[in-house]
Amino acid sequence: MPMSYYLILSAAMFAIGVLGVILRRNPLVVFMSLELMFNAANLVFVAFSAYHQILDGDLFVFFVMTTAAAEVAVGLALMVAIFRAKRTIDLDEMSMLKG
Amino acid sequence: MNLSDFILTLPIITLLVWALLLLVVDLWVPKGRKGIVAALAALGLAVTMGVTLSQSGGSGLAFQNMIIVDGFAVYLNVLYLVSGLVVVALSHDYLKRMNLERGEFYPLMFFSIAGMMLVTQAYNLIMVFLALEFLSIPLYVLAGLARERPESEESSLKYFLLGTFSSAFVLYGIALIFGATATTSLALIIERVGQGALNLPLFIAGAALMLVGFAFKLAAVPFHEWAPDVYQGAPTPVSSFMAVAVKAAGVAVLLRVFLTAFPSLAAEMAPLGWGIAALTMLIGNLLAIAQTNLKRLLAYSSISHGGYLLMAFVAYGNPQVAGQAVAAMLFYLLAYTLTTFGAWAVVISVEQNDYQGLELDDYAGLGLKYPWLGVAMLVFMLSLTGIPLTMGFWGKLFLFRATVDAGYVELALIGLLSSLISAYYYLRVVVMMFMRSGEPRIRRDGWLSLVAVGSALAVVGLSLLPNQILQMAAQAILSLQ
Fold first, then answer.
1. Which family does it belong to (chain A) (predicted)?
2. Which domains does chain A have, with CATH numbers?
């Protein structure tokens, strides 16, 4: 398959992720959209790794997945803490800080 | 991997090992004697600073060109470590009275500082991404440290979601650059650009996405919305840490990546940087006028100062002035660090145990009742505005001069105009302190007073020898290009 297919797919994934972050109000869905953005980048790495016939991109993907896992740990812990205190995690309810 | 790799990265290794030891030692320190942990944390930062200073003047590459050590990195690493020391002084009493003395506070700060040092020394885009995450993830936890307070949790969640959002932009940009050049090493990228062996549209798109990601981290307009909320909700010493050290790291990585790998894109990137810098200066200062909460006011102030720092980025593509601009930026960062930490120290002194005392009205009469604190705050406000006889004045002067030399006279004028706007809200704090009567209450703590008075003396004292400091900054970056 030509390279452009992978690029278009990953650009679409990235765009869906960006829209999800901006439009959705549930932090879990926002978080999934963020993961989609990370994985769009991973797809670019893997595709170009195969195209250039080098392993750097494949390796990079492992680092990205590890970092994403660390972020999940922090993010989910945060959401659990917030749910315990407020019984909701809706982003529209997050409006104590403004000015 | 050989011994020299470990010697070159010794400051980071020292800091990380110390952080892990601190995490364990804290278990044996009984509650009520946590001052020991703070003292050990300060000692660790001081030791790391000693190791870092022993590297000054030298340079080298470590771990297969993943990490670089040069004057630029040493200068900024010292700045991060000084920030860490100041934050220890600011937070010791604060954590005790807010009942936040958790063992993980200092280790998390250490991890974040290690991330900043790595991001400044990164010589490969993989390192750039990993170090950015390494510096951010502990900060998400630190922002939510006061987890009994919904404000702190809200601040943490907002920071987390937007921080990750910006990391995704940086990552996608890196992916495109990898696609365009078939490498992630900064040295090889510039080589491929020289040979013309790259896909230019992908390369430009990647660099632009990275710029957007870094602008998020820097809270530059139009990506600034999160900063005031996050600074307001986070524990105040953490806010001061984010306002100073994280901003410095953001500018550092921006300049490192763009100066080393993308000088060829200056024609495309400079107008983008121009727009972001001008908007950040103007909008940051305009929005600050409406603030009555000191933490939010300082947050908008730090946004606008990010705009001034970005002026150095605008000049990066002009090789004759790039060095001068970066030296001016390093000088400005020093001035900004001293001034901002001092101002936050005053805010922490006035903040009450129930998180009240942050409104502008709470400062009424402060200068009359506590002249030392009032005069110190006066110095900080003048320095942030850029009035002569302070470091802030020389910082702005050098930055504006470099910007004019680079041929961006309009940008320097916009900077001047926005400084005039900023005078309004900075001086309003001064008027409140000295010309209104009130019953201000402050928290008396020796370390807080030391930071406030010490920074004020440094801001005035160092302004008497601006050229020597600028020389030092210029020496530091000789090897950058």
1. Belongs to the complex I subunit 4L family.
2. 3-87 (1.10.287.3510)
